[in-house]
Amino acid sequence: MKQKYHHHHVQKKQGGIITMPFIFANEICEKLAVVGFGTNMISYLTSQLHLPMTKAANTLTNFGGTAAMTPLLGAFIADAFAGRPTCYTLRLALANGLRLRGPCVVSFGADQFDENDPEQKTTTWKFFNWYYFCMGASILVATTVIVYVQDNVGWGWGLGIPTAAMFLSIIAFIFGYPLYRKVDPAGSPFTRLLQVSMAAYRKRYVPMVSDHKMLYQNEDLDAVISVGGKLVHTKSMKFLDKAAIVTEDDNLKAPNPWKLSTVHRVEELKSLIRMGPIWAAGILLITASAQQNTFSLQQAKSMDRHLTKHFQIPAASMSVFTQTSMLSTIVFYDRLFVPLMRKFTGLERGISFLTRMGIGFVISLLATFAAGFIEIKRKHAASAYDLIDHPQATIPISVFWLMPQYCLHGIAEAFMSIGHLEFFYDQAPESMRSTATALFWLSISAGSYTSTLLVTLVHKFTAGENGSNWLPDNNLNKGKLEYFYWLITLLQLVNLIYYLLCAKFYTLKPIQVHQAVDERENKDEIELTDHV
C-alpha cells in the first residue's frame, strides 16, 4: 500500500545534531539557576528565617509542587497555540517564576530529530539520556560551587549567580534559533479530547458497528495532527469508539467534531487514558527522593563533614553524590548496558522504557530502606557521645555514611526518571507530546505534595504527650526518622506491585507510520509499529 504525504508545516531542512549545543547550553544555565536557588533553601529557611524543621520542609515541597504544576500550562500553550519555540522563549523571559518551559524543552529537543528517518531513529531516545546528563552536570555544579558561596560568602552572591545563569540561558537559546526545526501548533489537544468525549456520550445509545473499519476516518482532517503516522484502532475502551460511528445525522462533508470524531482522535484519548496508571506510579519515587533536600540534609548538618582540618562539605552539597551516581549510571547505561542488552533482547534501546522504570522503582525502594538503618547508626553515635539533647552539636560520625542513600537515589533517577520521560514522549499522540511530557513534571508536583501530606500526617499522629515525635521540629536526635523512611519503603513496595500489574497489562500505542514524500519518494510505504 502506497500513499504520499506532503507536510509543509515542519521545516525538515533544519534541526538535527547541530542544534544540540544550543539547547543543552540553555538547559545547563537554566538548571544552574533553578537548582542554585532551591538546593540550599532549607538551610536559609531554618537558619536565617528560623522556621521549624517540618514547616520548612513542607514549605519547600509545596513550592516545588506548585512550580512543577505550571508545565501543564506551558505544554497546553505549546501544543495548542504558540508552538514549542515560542513557549520556550516565554518561559525564559519569565525566569524562575514559572516552569512553563519544562515539557517544551524536552519535546522541542526531541523534535529536532526525524523519527521516521532511519539515520536518526536511535538519536531521539539517546537525546533523553544526554539531556538528563547535561542537566545532572549542571546540578552538580549548583550543589557544590553555588552552595559553597551561599554558606561561606553570602546569600547576596549565592542568589546573584543563579540570576546571571538564567540570563545566559536566554542568550544561548537565542543564538541557536535560526537552526531549530520548528513544529507548528496543531490546535488545542484538550478541545479534541473533550470533543471525543462529548461525541461518545451523545452516541452512547447507538449500536456498535460490527466491523471497526466502518468507523469514521478522515486523513485530510487529521493531516496536521498525524505527521509522523496515523493511530490505528484498538479494541480497548470500546465505549469511546461510539464517537466515530457515522449516523444519518452526521454531515461527512463538514463533520461537527462535537458529534463525530475520527478513529485517530478517539485513539488519542485512549492513549492518554492508558498512560494514566503508569504516570501515577511515578509519584512515590518523587516523594522518596524529596527527602534528600529536607530530612537527609538535616542529618548531614548534624554529622562530621570535614574533608580536611579546615574545610568541611556544605550539607546541601551532599546531593553531589546523587548527581555523580546519576551521571555515572547514564554513561554506563548508554555505553555499556544498552549494547549488551541489545544482543539479548533485539531492541534498539536495549530494554523497553517500562523495564527501565521498573528497575528504577526497585533501586529507589532500596534507597529509603538503607536510609533507615543509617539514621539508626547516626543516633547511636549521638547517644554514645551523650549528644541526644544537643541538636546543634556535631556528632562525631562521618557524613559519608549518608552516601549509600544519596547514590542509590541517583541511580534510581537515571533509570526511572529518564524512562518516564521516554515513555511519555514515545507513547503520547504526536500532537500532544508537550502536554504528555508535562505529565512528568506533574508527577513531580504530585510527589512533592504527597511528601507534604505524608510529613504533616506523620508529624500529627506520632506526637506523644511528652513531646516525642517521629519528626520533631527542633531535635532530630530525639525523633524516629528511620520509621518515616521505612514507611516510605513500605509504600514504595506496594507501589512497585501496582506498577508491575500496570506494566503487564499496558497496551503500546499502535501507529501506522508513513514516510514523508519530500525526502523519501521511493520509501513511502506504510508500516505498523509500536515504537518499542
Please describe what this structure looks like.
60% of the residues lie in helices and 3% in strands. The chain has helices spanning 20-38, 41-48, 53-69, 71-82, 84-94, 102-111, 123-152, 155-176, 189-202, 219-222, 238-241, 263-281, 283-289, 295-301, 320-345, 353-384, 403-427, 433-461, 481-505; strands at 229-231, 303-304, 395-398, 511-513, 527-529. The strands form 2 sheets. Strands 1-4-5 form a 3-stranded antiparallel sheet. It has a two-stranded parallel ribbon with strand order 2-3. Residues 1-12, 93-101 and 516-532 have low confidence and may be disordered.
Q: Structural class, please?
A: mainly alpha
* Sequence of secondary-structure elements: HHHHHHHHHHEHHHHEHHEHHHEE
Which range does the strand content fall in?
under 5%
- Shape by Cα distribution: globular
A few lines on this structure:
With 532 residues, the chain is an all-alpha fold. Helix content is 60%, strand content 3%.
Annotate the secondary structure layout:
Elements: H1 20-38, H2 41-48, H3 53-69, H4 71-82, H5 84-94, H6 102-111, H7 123-152, H8 155-176, H9 189-202, H10 219-222, E1 229-231, H11 238-241, H12 263-281, H13 283-289, H14 295-301, E2 303-304, H15 320-345, H16 353-384, E3 395-398, H17 403-427, H18 433-461, H19 481-505, E4 511-513, E5 527-529
Helix pairs in contact: 1-7, 1-8, 2-3, 3-18, 4-5, 4-18, 5-6, 6-7, 6-18, 7-8, 7-15, 7-17, 9-12, 13-18, 13-19, 15-17, 16-17, 16-19, 17-18
